[in-house]
Amino acid sequence: MITTPTPSMLRALPAEHRHRLMRVAREVTIPQGTRLFEEGGQADRFWIIRTGTVELDMHVPGRRAAVIETLRHNELVGWSWLFAPHAYHLGAEATTPVRAYEFDATAVRLMCQDDPAMGHALAQWVGDVLAHRLRSARIRLLDLYAPYGSGSGL
């Protein structure tokens, strides 16, 4: 299982943009076993984990969902909110009780429109997270479904 952390908002965003973003954050508690979202669902919010763990999973026809990555402290849950058509590409479930900051995606997109520098910084951060998640998904799916040794050239 991939355990390297995704790029943290704390390192990715300048303090000014980070503080502005956190002004629209809402603290939430998510019980263990709660599905945050499903593949194809409307990506109308996202979270930054304070405590606990969330697993990202991918529907595999005829099989159980494949866990792609486990997210922890300071990691972004949900990136699809930034890109049209704003539909989640993976599913997510709290595997422990989670405390997180929750953000309304529409409000954050409007902030980005009003402040292009902030929009650029957020897009760069989310893009870095997305690239990391795609690498994780590829490696995890090779681990699960490819013939033994076929992913050794990574």
TrEMBL record:
Query: Which organism was this protein described from?
Result: Streptomyces lincolnensis
What's the protein called, per UniProt?
A: Regulator protein
Gene3D superfamilies given in the database record: Jelly Rolls
Determine the domain of life of the protein's source.
Bacteria
Q: Where in the numbering of this chain does the Cyclic nucleotide-binding domain appear?
A: 9-78
PANTHER family referenced in this protein's UniProt entry, alphabetically: CRP FAMILY TRANSCRIPTIONAL REGULATORY PROTEIN, HTH-TYPE TRANSCRIPTIONAL REGULATOR ARCR
Extract the InterPro entries matched here. cNMP-bd_dom, cNMP-bd_dom_sf, Env_Response_Regulators, RmlC-like_jellyroll
A molecular function GO annotation: DNA-binding transcription factor activity
Q: What are the annotated GO cellular component locations?
A: cytosol
